[in-house]
Design goal:
The structure is a single chain. The chain is α+β, with helices and mostly antiparallel strands and 494 residues long. The chain is 28% helix and 22% strand. The strands form five sheets. Strands 1, 2, 8, 9, 10, 11, 20 and 21 form an eight-stranded mixed beta sheet that branches. Strands 12, 14, 15, 16, 17 and 18 form a six-stranded mixed beta sheet that branches. The longest helix is centred in the first third of the chain and has 20 residues.
């Protein structure tokens, strides 16, 4: 029978951070169990944009992460605002309507900068400025979304590749096609290993501690339908097909406490043209997050959200789900030629529908009530504004529409300069918000409110951080933060 000090279930960002941390903190034998075959390894990390939200007081504190950026990009630091711990926690509180776990959110925020530097130094994750995702050029300065300046080089693909290289270099064992199916307990109630199914059958691996980092249930249509509802049950999946909720079921089978918003999820607006799973080769390039510069119409020809409620990186996780609630789970994003240059490069993976007239554009769209759609756009233009009224794509500009329902509270420019462009969108589920209750040591808590000895969790399996919404870049940092904590404690408590 195989024996290890620490077994980590999963092989995404959080799980690999846990394995590296365990090895760094004295665990001699560390095993990573990856259910997917090698060619599909890495969980949802592969599909991520790789951006990392963390707190810092002075923009130049990030210089070691992006060496030479000020030489490569003119006035690089001038467009970066400080992003304090208070700012970060305030954003978490705001987007979750005050429901984020008070203990875990402070752990995340307070450790965020140190985690990212640890990823860079110990994990050997190379980093770069997130130019195409969170910067808008104004005159000769790039204005950055607060807290979102740095990403992993080559985005999620590079992040995943770096973690695997570091784990292999440190002598961590990685087994592919190895699906954990059950947690083992000893006579004292301590987790003592896992049962694994692979091509050879079922075997038991003994361990002094187990870390669960194998994701949520976003790829499991039955669990999505049961916990979130039939609309999300029918959603396309922006991520791995292997996140089936295995770790959650295994943990709850031995008494772990479910925690957080099991009816909630991160659902990104993605192209409606893809299949049931966003293509692996396109990673995060199915995303459609530039709706703040235009309007979204449902198939009844009506607007259904305030596209300018906040920056897209604070609204996209809930607007994807809002699209799923519309007829057919589909919408169209409409832009004119004044703003089309502001669209993210990721829009280039689709061919837009184009016309010199609004009527001609709508005629080409899968909209049932085209008369209502034209009425909606004309009413929007009547209540919208001109650029000289104070339009500023680099910040919430307060350029508000008048007399609409819903109003557009920022960036409410008229759509009146041809040609006009339309892109389809649906909600692509990325990860689920429901998870397990863990303490500040990443130890899993049982339904008797006591820690389950030998069991830790990280990544999407941590419940309670996100409710209804999610600030971009938090997931990867949360995964690495709690992965690092879980690996360290699994090593030292084993």
């Amino acid at each position: 029978m195989e024996e290890y000090d620490v077994v980590v279930v999963g092989a995404g960002n959080a799980a690999l951070a846990a394995s590296v941390s365990a090895k760094e903190n004295g665990a001699e034998r560390v095993l990573v169990l990856e259910k997917a075959p090698r060619e599909m390894r890495g969980g949802n990390t592969h599909w991520s944009g790789g951006v990392l939200r963390f707190a810092f007081d002075d923009p130049r504190e990030i210089a070691p992460l992006v060496p030479g950026a000020d030489e490569k990009y003119e006035n690089f630091y001038e467009g970066i605002s400080p992003y304090t711990k208070e700012d970060y926690h305030g954003d978490l509180m705001r987007v979750t309507n005050g429901r984020t776990d008070p203990v875990l959110s402070k752990v995340l925020v307070n450790n965020s900068k140190d985690t990212v530097f640890w990823m860079n130094k110990t994990g050997r994750v190379k980093m770069e400025p997130a130019i195409t995702l969170s910067a808008v050029r104004k005159d000769n300065v790039m204005i950055w979304a607060r807290g979102l300046v740095v990403r992993a080089e080559h985005e999620g693909v590079g992040l995943s590749r770096s973690w695997f290289a570091t784990a292999e270099r440190m002598g961590i064992d990685i087994q592919y096609g190895a699906a954990a199916i059950e947690l083992c307990l000893d006579e004292k109630g301590r987790v003592s290993g896992v049962k694994v199914r692979d091509n050879e059958g079922i075997r038991t691996i003994r361990a002094k501690s187990v870390v669960l980092g194998c994701g949520g249930f976003e790829a499991n249509v039955q669990m999505r339908t049961q916990h979130i509802g039939p609309l999300v049950g029918a959603a396309k999946v922006r991520g791995t097909p292997h996140n089936q909720g295995d770790g959650l079921r295994m943990a709850m089978a031995i008494g772990a406490m479910p925690w957080g918003q099991w009816s909630g999820c991160h659902a990104t607006p993605i192209s409606a043209d893809w299949g049931e799973f966003a293509p692996r080769e396109l990673t995060d390039r199915s995303n459609r997050l530039s709706y703040v510069y235009g309007v979204m119409l449902n198939r009844r020809g009506r607007r259904f959200v305030d596209e300018g409620e906040d920056g897209a990186l604070f609204t996209y996780a809930k607007f994807g789900r809002a699209i799923l609630a519309e007829p057919g789970g589909k919408a169209y994003q409409i832009f004119d030629s004044k703003v089309v240059h502001l669209l993210e490069p990721r829009y280039e993976t689709s061919t837009p529908i184009v016309s010199d007239t609004l009527e001609g554009l709508l005629e080409q769209l899968d909209i049932d009530d085209k008369e209502q759609a034209l009425k909606t756009l004309l009413e929007y233009n009547a209540g919208a504004r001109d650029p000289q009224d104070g339009y500023d794509p680099t910040r919430k500009d307060g350029l508000r529409s008048r007399g609409l329902n819903p109003e557009k509270t920022n960036w409410a420019l008229r759509i009146d300069k041809p040609p006009y462009y339309a892109y389809s969108a649906t909600g692509g589920i990325t990860f689920t918000f429901g998870g397990l209750k863990v303490d500040e040591n990443a130890q899993v808590i049982g339904t008797d409110w006591r820690p389950i000895p030998g069991l830790f969790a990280c990544g999407e399996m941590v419940g309670g951080l996100f409710y209804d919404n999610y600030p971009a870049g938090t997931g990867l940092v949360s995964g690495a933060t709690f992965g690092r904590i879980a690996g360290r404690n699994a090593a030292t408590q084993s």
